[in-house]
Specification:
The complex is a heterodimer of chains A (183) and B (351). Chain A is mainly alpha-helical. Chain A has helices at 3-40, 43-59, 68-86, 93-106, 111-124, 128-138, 144-151, 155-182. Chain A contains eight helices and no strands. In chain A, helix 3 packs parallel to helix 7 (144-151), helix 4 (93-106) packs antiparallel against helix 5 (111-124) and helix 5 crosses helix 8. Chain B has helices at residues 5-14, 20-25, 30-42, 67-76, 83-91, 211-220, 250-255, 343-350, and strands at 54-55, 110-114, 118-124, 129-136, 141-148, 157-160, 172-177, 184-188, 194-197, 204-208, 222-227, 233-239, 258-263, 274-279, 286-290, 296-299, 306-310, 324-330, 333-340. Chain B has a four-stranded mixed sheet with strand order 1-6-7-10, with no helix packed on it. The chains are: A mainly alpha (183), B alpha+beta (351).
Amino acid sequence: MTKSATTTRHSASTTSVRRRQLEALFTEHGQTVFAFARRRATAADADEAVSETFVVAWRRLDDIPSEPLPWLLGVARRCLANINRREGRQVALCQRLAEVTRMSSADEISIGRDISTAVLDALGRLTVGERDVLTLLAWEGLTPDEAAVVLACSRATVYVRLHRARRRFAASLRHVTDNQETQ
Amino acid sequence: MTITKDDLLLMIKAADPLDRAEFEAWPSRSQSENMLARIYTSGLPVPRRRRRVVAIAAGTAVFGLGAAGVAAASGVLGRPAPEPVKEYLVELDRGMPDDLRYNPDVDNARAVAAAAGGVVYLADLAGGGYCIEVSTKQSHPGGASCVTADDLKSRPIDVLAPLPAGDDAPLLIGGRVNSGDIATVQARFADGEASTIAFGLDRAWLLEVPADERASVLAEGLVIEGVSTTGMVMSSQQVPPMLDDDPLGTKYDATQPLVLETISDGSDLTRVLGIKGRVNVPGSPTLEVRYPDGTSTTVALGAGGLYEFRIPADRQDDFARIAGALVAIRNGAVVASTPIHSVAYGRAHNG
């Protein structure tokens, strides 16, 4: 066997291993990454964010930590930000929440839906940082430590934001429900 | 009102806006199924949208030609493309990575539509599709457009409308019809008048705007319509005004908050060697390059808002497949941004 043939076989084997790694990541977490993106963007933008996230994962396979989901969501978050910048939009979760709220309002109101609408509206009144922490914990089911990885901040920052968010959310929710009652 | 952390998270969880049906269906959608395959083969994200290209080329007027003109045009059809045209078609792939090359069959490029002032040449693509180029009679290429097999359906009429080289140059608009539903092509001018454009070979066409419509096309553009056998307009393509009163592009630039030009050496268009341009945002903003991986670096601003930044050698590949951004920041807030990406990225996303 020549040296070049050996090198080629080795290279193919390495590629095969890497592909299996990426496929495992995609199978286990692709849908969750999509859900994360879809909650915060249009369907097309969410697909693009997932696609770009796994391109980054493919290029940086060796850098992915043993608990990959927070890392992937952190990449997806930056990809969404890039997409929004690229499109010249200020689309953020609050805008998507506003759309959801409008759709809900237009539908037949049930008590449960009414509460959901109020919650989404109250979320939309928080700062981006506070909202990110709350939604990562509630919707993505992350721990504060994992949320810190996604948001590229310290655990202490997550706790501070969480503490502030609780107070502000309660105030916002009260404001929203008061308004609903007067309408 | 007091809410515990657990109650708060439960309330928010109950208001999750995610559509569960959409979520459950996602893994089996073709878009998601194709993601990994595309990453393996090209390292590129799945393209979301491919901008409809209105390439800029010329077309001679089959429209309005007298008998002599038609005879002259028909004599050209089928002839091999001259060397300058072939070279121009080859240039379309220069610096592009293998997976983004069109590889048109330049050796067999041939004239497919003609008029008194120009010719449309076509070269086939191996997997279907084509590249077409509008050239003046003097074999000066005016512009080219490539349509891959995948894009044929989304481009029922391919239109090339190059800016004329001068006041006396023919105003040429050419293209090709890709939809079997379209039987004829017509130009509709600003005054509402419509004129049929004759096909050349392979459903290519070329319009040389007649003298009495030239002023209106330069100022207001025109519409190219594809019409079915029953007379129904199946597709229309707006050609914008073609008057180039700002050849240096300075008027447009002056209205943009961020003017960005990427620097490459042309040999490898996946790389961005640097950026330069001007910031028109008032109030002494700072400028920042944001790489696709989320890291960033500050860019120094010179007099008049001019800047030039050499991308570090180990990061020149970062914009090959994913866009980053150039952002202007004032008082801690982003006040303007524009994407940074390689030329190759542009082809992958926009065709």
